[in-house]
Amino acid sequence: MAQAEKVEIIKEMLKLLPDGIISDAAFEGANIVLYTKDKTFFRDNTDDIRGLVNTFKKRVEMRADPSIALDIEEAEKMIRSIVPAEAAVGTVRFDSQRSTVLIETEKPGVAIGKQGELLRQIRSDTFWTPVVRRMPAIKSNLIENIRQVYFQHSDYRRKFLDKVGHRIYDGWMRGKKQEWVRITFLGAGRQVGRSCFLLQTPESRIMLDCGVNVASDEPTEAFPILDCPEFNIQDLDAVVLSHAHLDHCGFIPYLFKYGYRGPVYCTEPTRDIAALLLIDYVKIMKGDNRTMIFDIDDIKEFVKHVITLDFEEVTDITPDVRLTLYNAGHILGSAMCHFNIGNGLHNYVYTADLKFGRTPLLDPAACHFPRLETLMIESTYGGKTNVLPPGKEQDEFLVQTIKETIARGGKVLMPVLGSGRAQDVMVIIENLVRTGQMEKVPVYVDGMVWDITAIHTAYPEFLNGNIRKLIFHKDENPFLADFFKHVGSAKERKEVLEETGACVILATSGMMVGGPVIEYFKNLADNPKNTLIFSSYQAEGSLGYRIMHGEKEIIFRSGTRPEMIKVNMEVFRLEITDHSDRKQLMNFLYKVSPRPKKVLVNHGEVSRCLDLASSIHKQNKVETLAPRNLETVRLK
Questions:
Q1: Domains in the chain, ordered, with CATH?
Q2: DSSP 538
């Protein structure tokens, strides 16, 4: 290791360790990894590493130099002999560039051992650093491919993470510049869709989300406004992704298409779900003969550059910004993003989409932060009249509607987002069947819903206590109920339509702007025995919005010939959402601590943004703003 090439923080660390004991040092984002060829020191360095962590307040990890790691074939045999058969070890993947080994297992707790004893044994006996991951209970080739990307590009990944670390630490102990913080709205200002914001300091340029408006075909309305003076892709330091819905992640691959090669920070479930939805989005663009704004290769680049974080894990992302993700309660892995800017100069929270109430799947959004001066909150259901009935009432209405449709021999079609309400509905139906409140009925799951449900089985620790208890203690995973049927091809879709009787169909997309739900709708719409149930937000202009507001004749263009579909099926809207309604939003503002000094309102129709901003100002006596797109707000 050429120490002269290392930045100051590593040089300072090496002074506190025995001479010559470290063979190499590298950054993995904000984490610092030290490598040694000394087997004794590798096995017994706890006090040394703890001392470095306490002194520098950074994450430091010791790994064995690749040259002393056990041969891969021998190491795998040893790992499989150490881990009990009960853990059901699946794939074991070795990353020789970083001396780490990924062990996939059905029961991670068993593989880890009491207080981590088995991981320590693997580390000591093989000189590989083990990382344990849960295998999805529902097999998904797409999840397998996403995880494989990191191992196919191991050498690139190590260099990329080291480069990110240099960007963070090259300014370590550098003198202060002029201090200011500002945020520019590049999307979702007084609108729903294309969430995109640019956080700027003298040192940093950070993008918060980068989504598309799936309800619009006009590029000026569908995509974030990147052709503005504030934005230059060459200066972009990082992207922070709150969650995996397309109106927040759908334009990120476009950044990679045009040369961005920096990090994207998010949770593991968000990474996986976003990749799946983006792949589906590409297929829909191709199927509808739309202009391709990016392709599969750009999605792979996105996955290669993701750095995942757990909730409440603090990390530096630039020299003057620390990021912490908190549970947002919206969908699996969804996060509120807390930015500590300038070492306490200003603390800013971007809630993105939040649910401040318990759902069948998730715990309510967090509302306590270490520091907070500015809060930016969504307003999807922020209008005075957007107070929704209790969730229990709506779930009962859903069950009653399904029962009535099944009794008359009809089919229930539910357009759903790939992640969120689809899994809520699955859990609700499974619970009713398991507790004897409803007879078994086939539930066909089409589109990306099945693969995203598989991701839910891979990350049960992100689900609420009730679901975790079923999975961990009772071995009753609700997603594995035998009446859930995967529809994986056009042939199987045709069978559901023509050969099966009464059933429930969950299919994407939620706003009916593409995806398999369109095929089901065309075949089911004219039969009054069937029912269409909307359960997610319908953006103005989308097909779902038009049907929900009473259109009875829908014209589709198939080539040059128009096809007219009559809507004779029953149409219902469930007044329930994985967003917070007006009451929950105001309750969140009441309970959030510390109390913010400034509140920005975004992600809502104009009237809802303005109404919520006005009410927050009156109730909390704080400065409130509902900026338009292209407006910049100085935070400090």
A1: 3-67 (3.30.300.230), 69-135 (3.30.300.20), 179-385+579-634 (3.60.15.10), 391-573 (3.40.50.10890)
A2: -
How many secondary structure helices (H) and strands (E) does the chain include?
22, 28
For the stretch 302-319, what's the b/e string if a residue is b when 16 or more beta carbons lie within 10 angstroms of its beta carbon?
bbbbbbbbebeeebbbbb
Query: Three-class SS of residue 573?
Result: strand
The pTM score is 0.91
Predicted confidence (pLDDT) per residue in 471-520, tens digit: 887 678 899 999 999 998 889 999 999 878 899 999 988 888 888 899 99
Q: Please, which residues have CB within 8 angstroms of residue 362's CB and are 6 or more apart in sequence?
A: 327, 329, 330, 331, 332, 355, 462, 463, 464
Cα separation, 525 vs 462, in Å, equals 37
Which among 344, 208, 349 has a CA at the least distance from the CA of 266? 208
Q: Give residue 545's region: left, alpha or beta (phi > 0; psi -120 to 50).
A: alpha
Residue 607 structure tokens:
């009237």
Bridge partners for 596 per DSSP: none
pLDDT at 308 over 60: yes
Q: Is the peptide bond before 509 cis (omega within 30 degrees of 0)?
A: yes
The token duo for 433 is 């069947």
Q: What is the C-alpha radius of gyration for the chain, rounded to an integer number of angstroms?
A: 25
Residue the block writes with tokens 């009464």: 502
What is the predicted pLDDT for the residue at 6? 62
d(CA 119, CA 129): 8
Confidence at 1, pLDDT banded by 50, 70, 90:
very low
Distance between CA atoms of residues 317 and 168, nearest Å: 6
- Residue located via tokens 């004779």: 568
Give residue 4's pLDDT.
Answer: 42
Residue 171: predicted pLDDT: 66
Q: Please tell me the distance from the alpha carbon of residue 381 to that of residue 199, in angstroms, as a whole number.
A: 25
User: What confidence tens digit (pLDDT) does each residue in 130-182 have?
Assistant: 999 998 888 877 778 887 888 889 899 999 999 999 999 986 555 556 889 99
